[in-house]
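Weekly structure sync, notes
Attendees: PL (lead), two postdocs, one rotation student
Agenda item 3: pending single-chain targets
PL asked that the sequence for the first pending target be pasted directly into the notes so everyone works from the same version. It is reproduced below exactly as submitted, 298 residues in total.
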Amino acid sequence: MTISWALISGASTGIGRATALQLAAKGFHVLAGVRSKDAGAALTEASAGRVRPIFLDVTDQGSITAAIAGAAEMIYPSGLRVLMNNAGIVVPGPLEHVSPTDWRLQFDVNFFGMIELTRAALPLLRQGVTAHGSFVPRLLFTSSIGGRVSQPVLAPYTTSKFATSALGDALRIELRRQGIGVTVIEPGAVATNIWRKGDASSSEFHANHPARLLYGPEIDGLIAASKRIASNAISADEAAGQIVRGILAKKPPARLLVGTDAKVMATLRAWLPLPWFDELLKRELGIARLPVTGSRAN
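Predicted structure, written out during the meeting:
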């Protein structure tokens, strides 16, 4: 009997956790990448044992190798039907005030970790093609509407998401003849811990922080805008429902915009002239009418 197996990174909370539970409810056997025993135990309990937690740190090659080796033994000969690259973090801050270490961490988690996990899991997805048929197995990358729309004070995060979207677009063609469907997931505002963690990080830019000398209005504007957006965010369960429908669709969607706000923002970015769109973002941040400080400020 052919079994539908899914592997999801970053499944401890938020979209990854909700997607794992919903796929399990659809009859999938789900391997949920977590980084703590407590998160794994909670998933096992919530799914009545249908979700199997595995330790997975996407910034650690040894962890990836061990996780894939363990998965390969469990899922043979059915292979993987779903690999969802979902692990992600938010590193906020003006470019010159984000350390090289934090820049690298942002990309190690959000981008390079996806590359290494995908590289390791591709043979299992090819097994899935043999077992299930062409384009039934799906390779997913959780990007963001931030992978289409850059925002000030979020350059590390949005550039990592632009890279993620580009990776998915490239692999959609690269893997087509192998029968692996590739989808880039582009959520808008979703009520998850990732943004609460980002809020905590942005709060580090206190009143006396050097960044506020030049970037105070932009920092305050981003924090205020994030809170407004969060108040209308869809739940992780709702986001996961849209993702699961995409996974089960007959044809793999190339891009999957999740949430009305993501769809609206994508449309505005596509149709508005760039200066108009920039003005829209500045108004959202409350900095549209603030004076330019001049090039001598330092």
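Discussion points:
- The chain has a mean pLDDT of 93.
- The longest helix spans residues 100-132.
Action: rotation student to compare against the earlier draft before next sync.
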